[in-house]
Amino acid sequence: MSSxxxxxSLIVLHLTGFLxxxxxxxxxxxxxxxxxxxxxxxxxxxxxxxxxMAGFPQLMRVGMGLIILSGIGIMAMTHAIFGEQVWFRVKxxxxxxVIINAFVIGQRLRSRLxxxxxxxxxxxxxxxxxxxxxxNRFHTVQILLIFVI
Length: 149
Hints:
The chain is an all-alpha fold. The protein has helices spanning 3-41, 43-52, 56-77, 86-118, 125-148.
């Protein structure tokens, strides 16, 4: 395989990872909208939707892994020429924020929601409504940052 073909393959993997991560984030946002509709109707429907969304974080991890690994490969093949440019440094900072937001804040909110639903013998609308608000903020920030990237 020539170096040009390998470089183009890395670019394709990089874009594939980005599309996988961004697409899964948007699908997660849409699925949570459906979850809240079902939650207002019945808890059974809501837990079914939440169960269907269980694979989304793994897809996001795969997308981020592809982005990071192919990005390292691209930087190695270009001798880090992009690393000195301002646009790349800004983009890299935003990517770090997106990763931290997804895997720290997003995962924490998901686990809080699952815990609140599991413990919900007596409904606690205050906790659930705060989680809903925070999840909406989380998705809004994620989608905005993805569009900026």
